[in-house]
Amino acid sequence: EAGVxxxxxxxxxxxxxxxxxxxDPISGHDNLYWYRRVMGKEIKFLLHFVKESKQxxxxxxxxxxxxxxxxxTYSTLKVQPAELEDxxxxxxxxxxxxxxxxxxxxxxxxxx
Amino acid sequence: xxxxxxxxxxxxxxxxxxxxxxxxxTNSMFDYFLWYKKYPAEGPTFLISISSIKDxxxxxxxxxxxxxxxxxxxxxxxxxxxxxxxxxxxxASATGGYQKVTFGTGTKLQVIP
Lengths: 112, 113
Fold this sequence. Notes:
The complex is a heterodimer of chains A (112) and B (113). Chain A is mainly β and 112 residues long. Chain A is 0% helix and 50% strand. The radius of gyration of chain A is 13 Å and the shape is globular. Chain B has no helices and eleven strands. Chain B is mainly β. Chain B is globular. In chain B, strand 6 and strand 7 form a beta hairpin. The A-B interface holds A 4, 33, 35, 40-45, 48, 55-56, 58-59, 91, 93, 95, 99-106 and B 2, 4, 32, 34, 36, 41-46, 49, 89, 91, 96-106.
């Protein structure tokens, strides 16, 4: 079974630019989550999709962040325009019917 | 407001000894607790979990203990092995683990050969 795939693995962009992160969940997993870890702090929840619907987006920092999951398969997280404080590691996770998540390896975003 | 706290950022243990990682939480609504292990440049990997109806769950060398009255849980690794060296995250959920999970800041465990 293929795991959760995220790309790019690293992205360095200038402040004000746009970046789009992509996550391919495990096939058949309806639940998809985005999390972010900033500067060695806790891993913070951003949002949760069930299929193509946003179940919970209470963790999204502001309207510069836009997440989509067209067709209930892969998901994208766009940051536009990026700010310095957006730097961190963005993790995607998916879950089927069981309790635990399966995380991807993350995208390390650096805004300079 | 940190709802899940791991107050020890790092821990060093000799190989073969017991590693004890601690976690405290403040939200009384949490009913499901998980531990994740993370190696550098990888995503967190689910390790073990416990429901609030239990006070102990064991899986091989890993045991999680839950003290609901103290809002405290701990992960015991016995015996510790060098391959256990990683960052361990405590996490909690208020929905049986089926919705969003709140993570702690992690404890970096180093097992010394």
